[in-house]
Amino acid sequence: MSKYDYDMIVIGGGAAGLTGSGIAANLGAKTMMVEKERLGGDCTWTGCIPSKALLKSARLVRQLKEGSRYGLKDQEVSFDFPEIMDHVRKTIQEVYEDADRPEIFEEMGITVTHGKAKFKDPHTILIEKKDGITETYSSRYFLIATGARAFIPPIPGLNDTNYLTSHSLFEIKEQPDHLLIIGGGPIGTEMAQSFRSLGSEVTVVDAGSGILHKEDPEMVNILQDRLIRQGVKYHFNAEVHEVTEREGELTVHFDCGDTEFEIKGDALLVATGRTANTASLELENTGVIYTAKGVHVDDSCRTNVSHIFASGDVTGEYQFTHMSEHMSKVAVTRALIKIPMKIDRDHVPRVTFTDPELAQIGASEEELKKKGISHEVYRFPYSKIDRALAENDTEGMIKVMAKKLSGNILGATAVGPHAGEIISEYALAMKNGVSMRSLADTIHPYPSWGLGARRAADQWYIRNQSEWSVKWIKRIFGYRGDVPDFSDPNRIV
Question: Where would I find the beta strands (DSSP E) of 195-237?
């Protein structure tokens, strides 16, 4: 073991790399973390943190404009867009200082170095520093955690325009009058609502039949209808064939069926997914198998080269910070102490943080039908959650797929306020085998948003009750009340 400089070298200082380095050091491994830019990765600098900070500012503006919903007066809101963006950047810096500074990890005993890493051979990397110096280090184990970047589709003319991606969006100083967005996924959808709430005209062009194509269509429609009412314009089933720019005006040329369209705006956001950062690693020097999608790993995040692991976005499997952290935990634990942990693919929650939020975990209703898995669907509207009524925010629904008799939860989805928190409760339940019955029997505080999860679980009791069982109870105990109406199987109690 002493023939290597380090026990573990982690390449990449984003969510996956920070987690992997911290766990490795905590297990007593001599650890180095290499990052070519700034620690924190996309989540801190260009993804989760800035987008949620902007969403919050935009939501406050919209709520003030709609003050009559809360017993106030609707009002015109005066704000300075550069100040909002300064707030976003200050929030990024606060998160970096609090959680991502190199000193935090150096205090753990981790060697933090900045530079561009590439493999010389399976146990050796070269680190090219900005000053031109190249350093060489060897390690017993490696964790590749280099993340991903915005995918730019090969649209003619696009590279000749000043388009934006999530990497550059939060650096703009002027608010667009008309923001064009190519892509109706989570990034495109969140930013469409943000800029529309701030007063920009927003038009989204997407190749699919609607936004967020991976999510439950029934729930997506609730969110999409809200965005349309707020003024976001959509063109679906669109094939973009050219982008042009002239004197600061951008034009997206696309077809919808046999009809050609041109839309013009002063800013264009390309939100068409992400692609793994593998090009500069020179993985061919290791024998590691990878494709354009990313580095191939098994269920323990191990590549085909036994001492090299990979986690997070670079694998192309998931594009979530929470999964990057989970995968790094699996990878480092498997590498250093040989515990055969595996990626938990069955309980991966995902959330789009619009207003309302859209969240999902486990199997969807459509997936269960395709697989022929017997299940019941339980729906519970936000209009029956007292906290939603108190805050006049009742648009939304909780939907749970579960086994009829056992109540074992197979999947859940929610659209509405705090859906991300509600889905976390189902994530915990599914991971630990908590049934609908047990969830319904668990005391929840009133009036909380989480009570909606329990009320939805109550429907398992209602659905499994029958007319004959009530008649039997009445007869045994001599009760004189009426038998409930069981003619509607989807009745909400």
Answer: 201-205, 233-235
> Buried (b) or exposed (e) across 91-128, using 16+ Cβ within 10 A?
bbeebbeeebebebbeeeebbbbbbbbbbeeebbbbbe
pLDDT given for residue 9 in this prediction: 98
Question: Which residues 6+ apart lie within 8 Å of 115 measured at CB?
Answer: 34, 36, 127, 128, 129, 130, 135
In angstroms, the CA 410 to CA 29 distance is 39
**Quick one: which H or E segment has residue 358?**
strand 357-362
Is residue 217 reached through a cis peptide bond, with omega within 30 degrees of 0 on the bond before it? no
Provide the β-strand partners of residue 400. Answer: 378, 412
Looking at residue 225, what is its pLDDT? 98
Q: What confidence tens digit (pLDDT) does each residue in 469-487 have?
A: 889 999 999 999 998 888 7
Phi, psi of 355 (to 5 degrees): -125, 100
pLDDT tens digit string along 300-345? 999 999 999 999 999 999 999 999 999 999 999 999 999 999 999 9
Residue 414, strand partner residues: 359, 398
**Residue holding tokens 């049934």?**
435
Pairing of strands 124-128, 134-144: antiparallel
3-state helix, strand, coil in the chain (%, to 5): 35, 25, 40
Residue 340 CA to residue 338 CA, distance in Å, equals: 6
Q: Are 211 and 223 in contact (CB under 8 A)?
A: yes
What parts of the chain have a pLDDT lower than 50?
none
CA 6-301-49 angle, to 5 degrees, is 85
The two beta strands, 376-381 and 397-402, are antiparallel
CB atoms within 10 A of CB 221: 13
